[in-house]
Amino acid sequence: MSTPATPLVRTERIGSTLLITLDRPEARNAVNAAVAAGLAAALDELEAEPELRAGVLTGEGGTFSAGMDLKAALRGESPEVEGRGFGGLTEAEPAKPLIAAVEGYAMGGGFELALACDLIVAAEDARFGLPEVKRGLIAAGGGVIRLPKRVPHHLAMELLLTGDPVDGRRAGELGLANRVTATGQAVAEALRLAERLAENAPLALAAVKRVARAADGAPDADAFAFQRGEMKTLMASADVREGMTAFAERRPARWTGR
């Protein structure tokens, strides 16, 4: 695989948020090996910088992502990163919140990238679909696994078995999208949502994600046991003391992530 002359995944720091943009509009931001590696590197940047509190993932050119680059796959390229899954994201476990800002098509693996995020902001005319069954495949990048956990079983099965898409407005009605915006406004709304998240303690945000993952499918007793460990760690942190002090003094908390 040759190295592209320009990055296929761009990052931009906006306040405490890292805006991650899939930048392959001529291919509707389809994911090939280079895009997967670029997205994995962008997530590493998000995790490594303490001043960054959340990430927003979007696509250039009015399309989120058309999913796997089939032409690249036929050439033998893999759109997966070892240990991180499709696009370097679907099997990763970022500690910081990640918001998908979806304009245009989020099809196949593109939809699975959005499902791997913690929150989804969608333009009203965005299109979400898992058409793999129309190609003799299944949505193996997390679609078959995650979608039935996000919407009622029969609705998930309809989308998975027909391969038919839904628009952003319907995604909001189904609970797939946290916010639905006018066309062209998904990134701006996602950045505002990221700012709200950044008002909260970074250690607590990371703990919420770990507990939610650990509790998924686990017996309640095991989930509570895991949560007790997280609470013990949080209660020993400087941020908990700061949060309590700030509340008592009626001022905004000054988080340090320690």
UniProtKB/TrEMBL annotation:
GO terms for molecular function: lyase activity. It comes from the Bacteria. It is an enzyme of class 4 (lyase). NCBIfam families: PRK08252.1. GO terms for biological process: fatty acid beta-oxidation. This is Carnitinyl-CoA dehydratase. The keyword Lipid metabolism applies. PROSITE patterns: ENOYL_COA_HYDRATASE (PS00166). Keywords: Lipid metabolism, Lyase. Its EC number is 4.2.1.-.
